[in-house]
């Protein structure tokens, strides 16, 4: 499969690219700095909010996976990205999109644990702009006809993949953290297996014995 990756030079993005390449996919990396592009990829230099750069990155693509993370410097990064990306996907004939949201975002039908409802409320105060950006991103994808998935992990952690990922469309996870390496594998699984189409599943690294 030809996969375009947004955020390919970030901490999660690099792990995602490695996992996609390991599975035999061909990867196009959209990056701002060409010197930071992962090896083994077709590189397109540009911003995820630049329609022209997106069109170049989507040439020949079968799907898009985004590892763009929250940015305090770019409060509107995700809503601005989907505003450019959704029409670019339609124009390119690409229907599948997998991205990363956050556990602090609430979707219709959620059954969050009391702990997680409290965390979401606190995040709404502490990181209001980031949560609002992610919520607007979800609403924007819901208004498209694309086959999108937005994975909602909790706090991201470093460390090797464990192979233990708990996930559910609406029930928040027991674990309060997810290793970036586990997230990269789960994003690739969502793409390869067609999981959670037009849903925003919670996902986290499960504890031993879970």
Describe this structure in words.
It is a single chain. The protein is an alpha/beta fold and 210 residues long. The protein has helices spanning 11-22, 51-58, 77-92, 114-126, 128-142, 180-193, and strands spanning 2-6, 26-31, 42-45, 63-66, 96-100, 147-151, 155-157, 165-168, 177-179, 202-205. A six-stranded parallel β-sheet has the order 3-2-1-4-5-6, sandwiched between helices. A two-stranded parallel ribbon has the order 7-9. Helix 2 (51-58) packs across helix 3 and helix 4 packs across helix 5 (128-142). 43% of the residues are buried. The mean pLDDT is 91.
Mind sketching the topology for me?
Layout lengths: L1 E5 L4 H12 L3 E6 L10 E4 L5 H8 L4 E4 L10 H16 L3 E5 L13 H13 L1 H15 L4 E5 L3 E3 L7 E4 L8 E3 H14 L8 E4 L5
Parallel strand pairs: 1-2, 1-4, 2-3, 4-5, 5-6, 7-9
Antiparallel strand pairs: 8-10
Helix pairs in contact: 1-6, 2-3, 3-5, 4-5
Count of runs of 4 or more consecutive helical residues: 6
Structural class designation = alpha/beta
Q: Estimate the strand proportion.
A: 15-25%
Kindly report how far apart the N and C termini lie.
Answer: 33 Å
Q: What is the element string, with H for helices and E for strands? A: EHEEHEHEHHEEEEHE
- What order do the strands of the largest sheet run in, or round the barrel if closed? 3-2-1-4-5-6
Biggest pleated sheet: 6 strands, parallel
- The percent of residues in helical segments reads 25-40%
Q: Which value, in Å, is the CA radius of gyration?
A: 16 Å
- Report the strand count: 10
The overall pLDDT, averaged over residues, is 91
Instruction: Give the CA-based shape.
Output: globular
Q: Runs with pLDDT <50, length 5+?
A: none
Please give the oligomerization state of what you see: single chain
């Amino acid at each position: 499969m030809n996969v375009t990756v947004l955020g390919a030079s970030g901490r999660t993005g690099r792990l995602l690219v490695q996992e996609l390449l390991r599975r035999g996919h061909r990867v196009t990396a959209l990056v701002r700095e060409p010197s930071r592009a992962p090896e083994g990829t077709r590189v397109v230099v540009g911003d995820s909010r630049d329609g022209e750069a997106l069109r170049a990155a989507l040439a020949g693509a079968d799907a898009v996976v985004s590892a763009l993370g929250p940015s305090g410097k770019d409060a509107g990064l995700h809503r601005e990205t989907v505003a450019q990306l959704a029409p670019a996907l339609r124009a390119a004939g690409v229907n599948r999109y997998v991205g990363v949201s956050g556990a602090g975002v609430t979707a219709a039908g959620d059954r969050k644990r009391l702990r997680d409802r409290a965390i979401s409320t606190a995040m709404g105060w502490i990181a209001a702009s980031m949560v609002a950006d992610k919520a607007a991103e979800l609403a924007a994808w819901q208004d498209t006809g694309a086959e999108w998935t937005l994975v909602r992990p909790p706090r991201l952690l470093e460390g090797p993949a464990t192979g233990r990922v708990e996930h559910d469309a609406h029930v928040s996870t027991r674990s309060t953290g997810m290793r970036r390496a586990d997230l990269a594998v789960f994003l690739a699984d969502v793409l390869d297996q067609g999981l959670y189409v037009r849903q925003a599943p919670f996902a986290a690294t499960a504890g031993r014995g879970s």
